[in-house]
Amino acid sequence: MRLLIAGWHGLVARALIEAAPSRQEIKALAAGRPALDVRDPRSIERAFGDLSPDMVINSAAYTAVDKAEHDQEAVFALNREGAALLARAAARRNIPVIHLSTHYVFDGEKPTAYEEDDTPSPATVYGRSKYEGECAVADANPRHVIIRTGWVFSTAANGFAARMLAQAQSGKPLRVVADQRGNPTYAPHLAAAILDIACRLAANPPEAGPWGTYHAAGTGETTWHGLASELLARAPRTGAAPNLEAIASSEYPALAPRPVNAALKCDKFERTFALRLPPWQYGVTECVKAVGSP
């Protein structure tokens, strides 16, 4: 299977690119700007013509949540129009598309974990652009799998895990929000599940396939403070324990509101694909080993 991974800068995209070579049945074809600009139909046509993919994973997205509040034209151009253009180009070739989305399609006010049938109610420009992107993909290509996830972390140098470990090493106190909850999702775990799905879809005849929207995230819930605490607990330590302080969201002001409840219920994903992402704590352990000791 020739698998086109659109976008190569995000955490999940990087994890997909790193994991794909271990799958003998997959030939990964990663492309992003400037080689592939999903906002440009001509760029998409060139990429499809040059690469001849059998399936597409769209991980290209504008993800700067706060910046998006004042950059609406660019956000929707990529997250909605670009997603639709890519899905439509795939549909013309009868190619399935796996599209990545986010818990930000919900406002976070529900007291329990969100299910796929819950009505989206995005409270941010980013969330609205991703929800409208989902709708555009579904309209453009009936052979779609939309995967909502959240709280993705990895070994990326500018990511949450690396920043927490580095700040702990510096001896500076860490003040981390403790009144938001979600499912921390280790990017390589999610990437492995997505590649499993891609292989399954490739094996189905054209008329078959579990098309639709799914939630896929690390198993279990915690807060950002809980995630930071687990990261520091798993990291080797030679000096004094880091000073980790729990704070309220109001003490960490952000331009775009963060959902108080970002938890996703992933039962449908497990039933349909017989896949369950590992507990988020397992991801922390693997991430700390990969990052190195603080």
Could you please describe the fold and organization of this structure?
The N and C termini lie far apart (40 Å). The chain has a six-stranded parallel sheet with strand order 2-1-3-4-5-10, sandwiched between helices. The protein has a single domain, classed as Rossmann fold (3-Layer(aba) Sandwich). The model has no long low-confidence stretch (mean pLDDT 93). Helix content is 40%, strand content 16%. β1, α1 (11-19) and β2 (27-31) form a beta-alpha-beta unit. With 294 residues, the chain is an alpha/beta fold. The radius of gyration is 19 Å and the shape is globular. The longest helix is centred in the first third of the chain and has 21 residues, at 72-92. The chain contains ten helices and twelve strands. The protein has helices at 11-19, 41-51, 65-68, 72-92, 125-140, 160-170, 187-203, 224-234, 267-273, 280-291; strands at 2-6, 27-31, 55-58, 97-102, 144-149, 152-153, 174-177, 181-182, 185-186, 212-215, 222-223, 244-247.
Which labels suit this protein?
single chain, 294 residues, alpha/beta, Rossmann fold, six-stranded parallel beta sheet, two-stranded parallel ribbon, 10 helices
Task: Give me the secondary-structure topology.
Blueprint: E1 2-6, H1 11-19, E2 27-31, H2 41-51, E3 55-58, H3 65-68, H4 72-92, E4 97-102, H5 125-140, E5 144-149, E6 152-153, H6 160-170, E7 174-177, E8 181-182, E9 185-186, H7 187-203, E10 212-215, E11 222-223, H8 224-234, E12 244-247, H9 267-273, H10 280-291
Parallel strand pairs: 1-2, 1-3, 3-4, 4-5, 5-10, 6-9, 7-12
Antiparallel strand pairs: 8-11
